[in-house]
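Re: the multi-chain job from yesterday

Posting the exact lines I submitted so nobody has to dig through the queue logs.
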Amino acid sequence: MYNFTYHRAGSVDAAAAKLAESGDAKLLAGGMTLLPTMKQRLAQPSDLIDLNEIDGLKGITVSGGTVTIGAMTRHADVAASAEVQQAIPALAKLAGLIGDPAVRNRGTIGGSIANNDPAADYPAAVVGLGATVVTNKREIAGDDFFTGMFETALDEGEIVTAVRFPAPQKAAYFKFPNPASRYAVVGVMVAKTASGVRVAVTGAAPCVFRQSDMERALSGNFSADALSGITQDADGLNEDIHASAEYRANLVVVGAKRAVAEMA
Amino acid sequence: MRKFGIGQPVRRVEDVRFITGAGAYTDDLNLPGQAYGYLLRSPWAHAAIRSIDVSAARAADGVLGIWTGADLAAAGVGDLPCAISGVLRNRDGSVLEVAGRAVLARDRAMHVGDGLAFIVAETLAKAKAAAELIVVDAEELPAAANLADAVHGEAPRLRESAPGNICFDWEGGDAAAVDGAFGQAAHVTSIDLLHNRLAPSPIEPRAALGHVDDGRHVLRTSTQGANLFQRVIAPVLGIDQEALRIITADVGGSFGMKEFIYPEHILVLFAAEKLGRPVKWSGDRSESFMSDLHGRDVISHAEIAFDADGRATSLRVHNRANMGAYVSLFGPGIQTLGGARLTGGLYAIPAINVRVTGYYSNSVPVDAYRGAGRPEAAYVIERLMNKAARELGLAPDEIRRRNFIRPSQLPYRHPLGFVFDSGAFEANMDEAMRLADWAGFPARRDGARARGRLRGIGMSCYIESSVGFGYEAAEIRFPEDGTIEIVAGTMSAGQGHETVWAQIVTEQLGVPFEAIRLVQGDTDRVKTGGGTAGSRSTYMVAGAFRLSADQVIDKGKAFVAMLLGEPPESIEFSDGMFRSAGSNRSMSIMETAAAARRDGEGLDSGATFNHDISTFPNGCHVCEVEIDPDTGKVEVVRYLVVDDFGRIVNPMVVDGQVHGGIVQGLGQALMEHSLHDPETGQLVTGSFMDYALPRADDLCAIESSYNEVPCTTSPYGVKGCGEAGTTGACPAIMNAVLDALAERGVTELDMPATPLRVWQALRGAR
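And the result, structure tokens for all chains:
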């Protein structure tokens, strides 16, 4: 690890101010990606601005059919939250499938979505449930937030403060974990919401995406049968030693069918 | 039976230390004034090194010294030797002669992770910072990093002296007899198999701490036996063995790869001497993947001939084995002198011919990994038997029944030289099938089918050899503090030697178990020793302790006789008591030892057990799997094993060995595969993000049971158990996987049976 200057931010405004004035600063949330990268000397931030002491960024509130999760809320807390389990059980389940207990007790929802790893689970929830990302500057629709591999709509100096999830009528998450890392080889969130059916796929492509063929089919007939005959194009999907593009395409279909079947 | 004697499930005495964090591993040790070493490693799989400019790095903050391969050569540091060089005979009659491995690469980097320069600084961070200032002028060369990339005709030639990248070409058995039998065969089954390359991945990465103390070099490091390190390292440094002390503290797993001497061992000692300060090197996990010796990595082609009754008449195997970039200490011996002698397993096959061709490649050297050639032999014959059974229309158990070595044939001389002394091979299979409710499997398959899953059952009947090689030494001492100090040349890496060796000595001498202290891993306190490898430790150390205990008893009888004024032959020893047959007087061994010590000589004794006969653990594994045909995911739903380890000293410790071995076998069968990019030679599986090691939720409970058929050649009838699990597991699991896939038309599949590969096989078969 290279040397850096550590700052503990007491508020979001203070963190933003420090971010603006530092050369090549990084925000430290759970540190689940940033710290290993720094340890391997693959990242060399000048400053780390620690968000962990900002109380206002933590916690879960549920009101009026909306689940609001503070950006610094740990995955384990989302998974264990009775309120989340009640309002959006698929979201609690997804949080409980991330990484391993050590990761879940440290990693945060804000850190996860701001990093936008193509194999992370939370992007499937944000897009699949039609969530809204709240920052210190504005609100961003989940559909617009993830713009590419490790890229988001966040501006320079913009900090995620919370994610708002409208409770769907029903939703289910299928995950096929990488045998080594336990990241999602493919994760599929299927939700029936007030504004229509959503199918969001993570892990399969460089960035989370909505599977519109499936959304159309399920809008008319919300059953696994409606998905028979629908295929996922393997073009442009990720390939690695654990999964070919064709295999990932297969898992997208299998995963969507199983998620729908789970809701039957 | 004694409470703490042989056969008792005594709880492991070392575990409290381990699970409360009180263990002391090499990286936990620090010495005053210690400096830190860091190894600059090759980022290239194959490169010609034109020059290495360390001037800027040498001037960097906190740097104490930097050495390259050229510096070491100039200082007279030798190369790391291969013990098989000069020993292994090629098919053409020539004897293998290979150069040693340079401690640091001199003119060519041969694999990703090959050492280029050793930097020692006041802190590790400063050493790493300095390493980034080193300028290596190198020309990247075409690489062949995977075995498959090295063996084909167009492969780049990695060594002038090795056309076709062939390191050696060895053959065993009677080729003419085999050819004759194949000419008469009623049926021939052939198979091509991959024994996937494995990264051993012990929980404790390698570390080394060297210093020079009062003119002697002292190395603290994880080993499987300190004495081997002393014998190998001293000549590399050009010093006398007595001028080198090796100390091994607690070891967190080894599986073969810590048996061997690595460049870092030499470097910390060399640098410590040059700097006059202790030097510590601790590898991180990334370095483990690119520099720990790897295991397996063999491609097999095998053919078996049967007569009209389904009895095997002949077996022919050609193994192509990856040696890696350099030949390691035992590298060329693993598949030849080690595994090949078990080709054909526990079947009475009259004619066997096995050829092993070793290849160089641009990868970390390959050497012994838990089983070291025997799992490969078992995998070949057990996959062949299942394939032949399908072709011949026989049940898997029936084809084995027709071919087992029968009890009446024991002792059985294997065509490649081993003599199997004992075993009940068919009985083990019968018992395993009974426990597994093999007969009830079709109903379970139907149940799985109703749930949309493919269910398969598989077995393997394995035999392996615990390698006697030579000798083992032990001592039994009675110091003043009332403890019993037992000294052994073996080394525990988590196997529980502190417990099991104490049980053996308790059995022999009736001394209080709690008072026994094991001394191991220090060449100043352990005068000689073979080390722990090849599942040999229990019976070898038992032999050495028995000889030592006999001397203790003889000395005790003489001393008690002298005290009582009786002739020594009137003194008897049993249950820890010396008794006079004539009078009714007795003395406990502890009283006797204390009195004898006060009197002068004491009862302290030591002996070397010379024993060159292998033992043959064997048994039957049965595995059931369920496969999700949509995802290709294999789930092991039942696993049981009946093992014949001869007499068992501690069944609880043996259970642990069996479970751990099977888990590592499951890792190879379903998950683990160390891979390089065929284009760039880069290590693809360079971290646990991509190298899939089994976790608790990847397995089911393992049911183990024992059929104790005492070994007729070893002390107490012990056969050994350390590697049996890995030997039997791969074929049992893969046979179950293929059984499940058979109804979908899949007949061939290599390890590891990952979800991707199973799904691809299912799709290909459609």
